[in-house]
Design brief:
The protein is an alpha+beta fold and 128 residues long. Helices cover 39% and strands 33% of the residues. The longest helix is centred in the last third of the chain and has 20 residues, at 84-103.
Length: 128
């Protein structure tokens, strides 16, 4: 897990703050969960493993911080009935806005992989 010191803005005392990958991943995860059409983050196997390990707040998010610049990879499950390209773009925008606004780090890229699609009727079959 790479950690990079955060550079302060002009006029702010120059004490660097180190922001860990996991903090950025949690911010990105939270931003994606709020998007309509995102059923979950991570593929089926990673969601199962993450829940066992207690990593549910970062599952499906991979972060690389290098010299104050962040690259973020998101693996998600889309909800059937939503335009997948629109959902992915909304995730990109929300993640970029939230990560840059919360951490002050520059987001270079946000890559989205749609690993699965959820059909709402699947819940009814599993519960019934």
């Amino acid at each position: 897990m790479a950690e990079e010191p955060q550079q302060p803005e002009a006029g702010v005392p120059s004490q660097p703050v180190t922001i860990s990958d996991s903090v950025v991943a949690k911010v990105a995860h939270n931003a994606c969960r709020e998007i309509a059409g995102v059923h979950g983050l991570g593929g089926a196997a990673s969601r199962a493993l993450s829940s066992l390990r207690g990593e549910s707040r970062t599952q499906g998010i991979s972060v690389d911080i290098h010299e104050g610049v962040v690259d973020i990879d998101i693996t998600m499950v889309a909800t059937y009935g939503h335009n997948i390209a629109d959902v992915a773009e909304k995730c990109r925008q929300a993640v970029r806005t939230q990560v840059e606004g919360t951490t002050g780090l520059k987001v270079r890229e946000v890559n989205v992989v749609v690993a699965d699609i959820h059909f709402p009727s699947e819940d009814e079959v599993e519960e019934g």
